[in-house]
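Figure S4 source data
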Amino acid sequence: MSTEPVKSRVALFIDFWNFTLNMKKLDESFLIDWFKIPSAFIQYLQGRRLDGLSDALEYAGCEVVGSYSPHEVSLWNWSRTTLQKINGLTSTFLPRQKMEQGPVCTGAEHHEVPSCPQCGKPMLGYKEKGVDSTLVTLMLKKAWLNNYDVALLISSDRDFIPAISFLQDHNKKCVQAGFRGSGYELAQSCWASIDIGDFYADFKRGN
């Protein structure tokens, strides 16, 4: 009597700006087909045949977390409409916070530079706040609810290392998906890592 193989449930957690900006560095003209992201990443991970993973992987959802500034409202609209049409995907885009202080010089007194010395334009832009903590919260919440066996983290940010260590201490496998030449410390802290450069053609728009 045949039995169903035990499946490893894989949940994707995507650091939106870290992922998209690194994709631009890899291929400036590349356009991401977000509808292909879940299957492309899980199929590639399946093909790696890593010890400790079952031969059958099951998609357990995708969390995308990013940020937007006041002139990027269209990005927020896209995240709430197009992006959330993808099966099992939930997006969270947070408003960036206005900087209260400009950058400072490297001199001993660390003078603030409130405006550009060349054109006079203000240096007070917007900064990302809460993205990493939101993504970490989602990883921990879904682990507590036992929604996945494997967390596939698409980021190169070392700030995720404490959360990764906690999850792996509590029997969750963490796989980092990153880019060659960056994210080494995060990759080293994870159970396994994969290089997006090896399969990014699988989620190219228009293919």
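Figure S5 source data
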Amino acid sequence: MTGTVRNDLTIYDNVAEQWWSDEIRWVRTLKNLVPARLAWFDRYIDWSEKDVLDLGCAGGFMAEAIASKNSNVTGIDPAADAISAAKRRAASIGQDINYAVGVGEALPYADASFDAVVCVDVLEHVRDLTKVAAEVTRVLRPGGIFLFDTINRNLLSRFVTVTLAENILGILPKGTHDPRLFIKPKELRNTLKNSGLVVGPQTGLGPRGINRKGDFVFGALPVKSVIYMGIAIKPRSSK
């Protein structure tokens, strides 16, 4: 492990040209997570005609899936090559998704621009969680919803995501995660609450089976020990 760069965000640009090829196992894993996330998020939002920001969209897996539900989708990510790949993909299939390069700590959008902000596989990578939460709150409209997932911080999550997924199984590139950036559910609840959001339900997310390619199929889980999903609402009034 000595010398491994942790929280290495260059991995997304490095595979940008192959993002939609299904040739890279860890990228397929990210794609395979989308149906499970949406199945749970769908309980809390009707996507149709909503203005949605996919914060940390990478090459566009989640953005494309949400756009297919008749949403007006904007995607933003610091990985410029991944954003270029997302733009090419959207153009090739005729989807009107507004992709841009940027970071969650300084979103280039006006106040109250979105009905929903989706942020998956991102919060455990950001430089300043408090700033990201504040920016999410700012760009949400009153009554808007924040839908997210992230990784819990404990010995089990470190073993599963780093030792097992990165070092043994190779499901993720070495250096993908820095366990020090993982976020306990209570910590995230407090951060979102302090930003002005009302925190709602949370649930676990993890493997539920294996497909024909030998890749994991994912679904909601009753335990939040490793990955967990959740929602938070921006109040319609401060009263």
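The chain has a mean pLDDT of 96. The helical segments are 10-14, 25-41, 61-67, 80-93, 129-139, 155-168, 185-195.
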